[in-house]
Amino acid sequence: MGKDGHWVPAVIEDVELTYSFEPHKAKKLKGQSWLYCTHCGLLYLRNPITKWCIKMGCNNSYHKQYKFMLKKLTK
Ligand SMILES: [Zn+2]
Predict the structure, then answer these.
(1) How far does the centroid of ligand 1 lie from the alpha carbon of residue 38, in Å?
(2) Confidence at residue 75, expressed as pLDDT on a 0 to 100 scale
(3) Rounded to the nearest 10 degrees, how much is the dihedral formed by the CA atoms of 32, 12, 70, 74?
(4) Contact between 61 and 68 (Cβ < 8 Å)
(5) What count of Cα atoms within 13 Å lies in the side-chain half-sphere of residue 50?
(6) Ligand 1 centroid vs 28 CA: distance in angstroms?
(7) For the chain, which residues make up each domain, given as ranges?
(8) How far is the centre of ligand 1, averaged over its atoms, from the C-alpha of 37 (Å)?
(9) CA 39, CA 35: separation in Å to the nearest integer?
(10) What is the pLDDT of residue 30?
(11) 53 CA to middle of ligand 1, Å?
(12) Which of 2, 28, 65, 70 could bridge to 8 as Cys pair (CB 3.0-4.6 Å)?
């Protein structure tokens, strides 16, 4: 979590990674309004980059468009 409450993705090393779709395992936290994924830790926030990450599954950071989307959607 970032200091302003936004989900901050882990820093990915600049290596060739293969993306394969892995559905999130969303779970509701007690007393929290957000769902979160027990597999990758993604918080289901209502912002464009999170929506993209939800759609792409747990391995979204391996996707070749990840950096591009991150730049585009977090402006
Ligand atoms: Zn996940």
Answers:
(1) 7
(2) 78
(3) 60
(4) no
(5) 16
(6) 13
(7) 46-75
(8) 5
(9) 12
(10) 87
(11) 8
(12) 2
**Which tokens belong to 1?**
């979590």
Residues of the chain scoring pLDDT < 50: none
3-state secondary structure of 37: strand
**Angle made by CA atoms 27, 29, 34, in degrees to the nearest 5:** 80
Please state, in angstroms and rounded to a whole number, the distance separating the CA atoms of residues 12 and 25.
21
CA 26 to centroid of ligand 1, rounded, Å? 7
DSSP letter for 61, please.
Answer: G
Q: Is pTM beyond 0.90 here? A: no
59 CA to centre of ligand 1 in angstroms: 7
Question: 45 by DSSP, 3-state: which?
Answer: coil
Ligand 1 centroid to residue 75 C-alpha, Å: 23
